[in-house]
Amino acid sequence: MIAHHLSLNAMRIAYVEIANFRKLLAVRIDLSDETTLLVGANNSGKTSAMLVLRYFLFPSGATKFCMNDFTLCHFSKINEIGSAWKNKRQESDASTLQTQDWMTIAPTLDLWLSVDDGELHRVSKLIPTLDWSGGLLGVRLRFQPKDIQGLRKDFLLAVDAVESLKAAANNGNGKQAYSVKLWPESLTAFLERKLHSHFSVQAYTLDPSKTFPPQEGLAQIQNIATDQEPIDIANLRGLIRIDEINAQRIFGDESDGGDGSKQEAKSTRQLSAQLRSYYTKHLDPLTNPNASDLEALEAIERAQQAFDERLAVGFKDALGEVEGLGYPGVTDPKITISTRLKPVEGLDHDTAVQYQIEADAKRTDIPKMLLPEQFNGLGYQNLISMVFRLMSFRDGWMRVGKASAAASLDTEIPPLHLVLVEEPEAHLHAQVQQVFIQKAYKILRAHPDLGTSKQLRTQLVVSTHSSHVAHETDFSCLRYFRRLPPGPKAPIPISTVVNLSQVFGTENDTKRFAIRYLKAQHCDLFFADAAILVEGPVERMLVPLFIRRRFPRLSQRYITLLEIGGSHAHRLKPLIDELQLLTVVITDLDAMSATDGTSERPVKGKKQITGNDTLKTWVPKLTQIDDLCKATNDKMVCSDNGTLFAVRAAYQVPVQVAFKNGNAVEVVPNTFEDALVFENLPFFSTLEGAGLARKFKEAIKECVDTDALGQRMFDALKSGKKADLALDVIDAENFDDLVVPTYITKALEWLEGRLVKEKADGAPEVLAQEAKV
């Protein structure tokens, strides 16, 4: 067992603040005590967040930075600095150095640790003041110029070389002879080639008294003095062991496709390679042997001796022939054959890992059947590989087996173990994804000195696109990456991060309902471009078909559709508002009497009210049926000015219907079903089916006017099975002739227009980073 200094709770990472890295202009990510799940739509910044931790916390991570890692809106400022240097060439002119500007545009990671007073000895070299006695402790890691004067000098030398070349090419006649662009055209172009010559990661202490919560989604990054001295970054890295499983995992058959890729695939995918590494680090009896290794060593020696004897017999004749040629002579050494057996080499072949195929236990004539590892499914290969790597991370941290002897005797085990896992869902079907996220943290803690102990802390950070992974994670552990278009906060698209544990505040009933509902349904909401909330099963089945057939551009976007009754949709409002997810709520008018609250067919001028809480409290915040009937399209939208976020209500509106006498009259539908019938009378007059389909067909045949038809449908819908009606509609041969109800058509046209606008607004500025975020 490993002895530790006693403390009430192990040190942990409370949160990180990231600034000036790709789309992460200024974000805070709160880390859970155990597992933190990063969710969000494509291109929202999840991968960027994982890369920041990798680049800053791995000792070799700084070599991965490139100019495109700087937030693009800072490029103009960097070029302004370069222009100032070209215009003011005196080194004594301090204003040209722009030191403060560099500090505000350089990529940074602020790491905020929660440290118990019993662990002060671990962080003594990071304490900002002598008054500090525990709590939050901040360290800034910044990728910054090593020497601004040196950067300035080298940049100007490169610029002067270009000017000299141009002058020579022009033969001194002062005329421009060539239009070709020569490097460096700007300071950003210079740094694209010379970044690592002039930039490095430096660490600084931060002041816990100057921390502030994010404002309007943006982290309030602490300012530090330009003359503050850096600290030794090793003092921080000694506190944290970081391991990662990145998203680039290659599995599959190792056959050569003709492009020379066979060896690369083989070297990156095989579990046997991981087994060899684990064996070498933790199990090899030849490395620093102890008492428990003696039996294994003795067995190896016996095997080696027996093998040597067999080799001597086998090579006797061959060596005799060599001796017949006069070798060896009197003074020449004699050839002998001896082996050096290394157990790890037994794992260094294609079939080191095999899978045993289960056979009928009653059959004694079937031998044990084994297949090489590549014959197992990709999903299981990936799962086994990830689990084994987690085990290796844990045992490496805890110095299990031979790793303890390899570690320096005067170094303590780091109190923090940060494990990053990118997109664990690759190749895994839904159930296995859920099993992995349920078990991953437990695997990382499966050691006698870990478990539920508070002395050493493991924090797992997982980025995912899988709703199944999100479904199995506690709501409070989700961190949602929200995309923002160009606007007041930044001239380019950026992202913010929402801590979903704080979304609902103290509204316990609302929070309980939302969490339980999302667990009962699915979590696609966290990965979508937009959401459509529908009233019931008929809309849930038919609206996707309407979109696919009538709104092709809309069908190409990532839209999640949730079935939630009109009386409950508004309870998702806090979540939708925080996610700032473009949303359409397709709901029902639900007219009722203002006097006794009984349900009625909607009729204008009767002072009816709606029983739909979504319409009353969310959007359009109207109660009177007459007001709802005359509401304009703008009134049906609740938007956040300056962003693309908006919520639009879609409910039944008055429509003109021509019935048997051929004259068009105005009717006000009450639900999706009667709205669908009123606008598709020829379709439903021939629709075959039982239940509501039959009742509607009979009503169309027997009723003389729309008023009577509306009442018949209103009565039938009180007890009819709406889902059966949807199935009958879908099964109809003339389904493609169905007219989408007007109120839904207008809402989907609005949503399509907003999504196209979002794409148009966001595309140009993010092209350089889109593949990396």
Judged by helices, strands and strand pairing, the structural class is alpha/beta
Look up the CATH topology of the largest domain: Rossmann fold
* Terminal Cα span: 43 Å
Report on the biggest sheet: 6 strands, mixed
In terms of DSSP E residues, the strand content is 15-25%
User: Which percent range fits the helix content?
Assistant: 25-40%
Overall number of domains: 4
Oligomerization state of this entry? Answer: single chain
Q: Which class of the largest domain in CATH terms?
A: Alpha Beta
Note down, in words, how this protein is organized.
This protein has 773 residues and is of the alpha/beta class. The protein folds into four domains: 1-74 and 103-145 and 200-241 and 414-502, Rossmann fold; 297-373, no CATH class; 522-652 and 742-764; 655-737, no CATH class. Helix content is 37%, strand content 16%. It has 25 helices and 22 strands. Strands 7-10-11-3-12-13 form a six-stranded mixed beta sheet, sandwiched between helices. A five-stranded antiparallel beta sheet has the order 2-1-4-5-6, with helices on both faces. A five-stranded mixed beta sheet has the order 15-14-16-20-19. The longest helix is centred in the middle third of the chain and has 30 residues, at 294-323. The protein is globular, with a radius of gyration of 35 Å. The two termini are 43 Å apart. Mean pLDDT is 82; it is low at 1-7, 251-269 and 761-773.
